[in-house]
Amino acid sequence: MQKVIKSSNLNKDLAYILGRLAFDKLFILTDENTDRLCYPLIKENEQAGKADKIIIKAGDGNKNIDSLSSIWKYLSENGATRHSLLVNLGGGMLTDIGGFAAATFKRGIKCINIPTTLLGAVDAAVGGKTGINFNGLKNEIGAFAPAETVLIDSVFFRSLDRRNFLSGYAEMIKHGLIDSDKEWNATLSFDTEEIDYDGLKQLVVDSVAIKERIVEKDPFEKGIRKALNLGHTAGHAFESLSHEAGKPVPHGYAVAWGIICELYLSQKYCGFPKEKLYRTVYFIRDNYEGFFFDCGHYEQLYEYMKHDKKNESGAVNFTFLSDVGKIEINRTATKEDIFDSIDFLRESVGL
Ligand code: GLY
Question: Whole-model pTM above 0.90?
Fold first, then answer.
C-alpha cells in the first residue's frame, strides 16, 4: 500500500525514505518552475543533491507523449535500471507524468511523489492515478500505479498564489462533502484570505486521510472511489470548454463550479439538504470568480459530459450526495435537469 508521510521536516523525512528504499541510482524529475523554486529545498539532502535531474517543460499542455518520451530517453541513456528510483517533485502534471514514466520504464521502477502544490498534495499525488493527455483528451493514456511513498510538506504551499491555492482547496471542499459534517464545516469555516498555515496543514492532513481511506477500499475505482468524482462530471466539461475558448481556468475552479451543479442535482434527485447546498454555494461564490459562458454553450458542455471516460453504457455518470457524507454513486440525470443545474450555477455565482 502507498505510504503517505505528512512531513514537518522535509529533508529529514526525505533522508528517512531514501534510507529505507533499496535502489541503485536516483533520478529527480522536475519542471522548469519546480526546478528553480522547489529543488533548492531538497538538494541539501546528500543523495538528492547528487541525483541525476530530468527537467521538463511546465504546464498541463506539456503532459504529453513528447515529454514522456524525453523522460524515458533520459532514463534509458543515463543508466537507469529496473532498480532505480524516480523522485517526482512538482504539481499534479508532474506527478501524473512522472508516475506514468516510472510505471512503464522497463515495466516499472519505483517512484516517490513530493507534491509542491495544494492540488497535487490533496489529490493528484495520492492514490495512484498516473498518465498523460493524448489526442486532445485529458488523461487519455495512463495507469493505476501508486508511488511507493508520497511526502507532503506544507512548506511548498506558502508560496502558492491565490488561484493555485483555491484550485487545490476545491478538492478539499469535495473531500469534506463526501466525508462528514465536521470536515465539511471545517473547510467552509477556513479563512481563505488571511491563511493560517498551521491550520491549513491540519486541514490538508485530514483531507488527504479522507482520500486515502477511500482509495484503500477501492484502488481501481470499481465502486466507492467514484465518490471522489463529485463535481468532476460537470467540472471537466467547464474545464474543457475554458481550454477550447482559450481562457483556461484552473482545474479546481471548474471543480468548484461542478460541485454547485452536482449538489443542485443531488438536491433534486436525492434530497440533499437545501441549507447545506446554499452554504456551499455561498462559499464558492465568495471565493471563485467566474469565466464567461452562456446558454449558447450548454449543448457543448453536455457533449463534453457525454464523452467523460467515467460514463458507462452511454449515460452521463454522476456522483450525488443525499446528505454530507452520504454518497450515491452511478447516478444519472436528464439533459433538462443538467441544463437547469448550469442555470442554477450561473444564477448563484453570477456567471
Ligand atoms: N482524482 C480522483 C481520484 O483520484 O480518484
Answer: yes
Contact, 10 vs 151, CB < 8 A?
yes
Q: Pick from 264, 235, 230: which is nearest to 249 by CA?
A: 235
Ligand 1 in contact with 129 (CB < 6 A)?
yes
Strands 129-134 and 137-144, bridge-based pairing: antiparallel
Ligand 1 pocket test, pick from 225, 230, 255, 329 with the greatest ligand atom count within 8 Å of Cβ, gives 225
Which CATH number applies to 3-159?
A: 3.40.50.1970
Å from CA of 151 to ligand 1 middle: 18
Ligand 1 atom nearest to CA at 129: 4
Nearest to 127 by CA among 105, 102, 84, 96: 96
Q: Is the CB of 123 under 6 A from ligand 1?
A: yes
Contact 290, 199 (CB under 8 A): no
Ligand 1 in reach of 171 Cβ (< 6 A): no
Q: Which of 66, 65, 106, 63 is nearest to 88 (CA)?
A: 63
- Among the residues of 195-334, which ranges form H helices? 197-217, 232-244, 251-270, 274-287, 298-306
Task: Map out the domains of the chain as residue ranges.
Answer: 3-159, 162-349
Cell numbers standing for residue 314: 452511454
Q: What pLDDT digit, counting tens, does each position of 130-162 carry?
A: 999 998 788 899 999 999 999 999 999 998 999
Superfamily of domain 162-349: Dehydroquinate synthase-like - alpha domain (1.20.1090.10)
Q: Does ligand 1 lie within 6 Å of residue 121's CB atom? A: no
Tens of pLDDT, residues 68-78:
999 999 999 99
In b/e form, how buried is each residue of 169-192, taking b as 16+ CB within 10 angstroms?
Answer: bbbbbbbbbbbeeebbebbbebee
Atom number of ligand 1 nearest to Cα 228: 2
- Cell matching residue 250: 484552473
Which residue has its alpha carbon closest to ligand 1 atom 2?
228
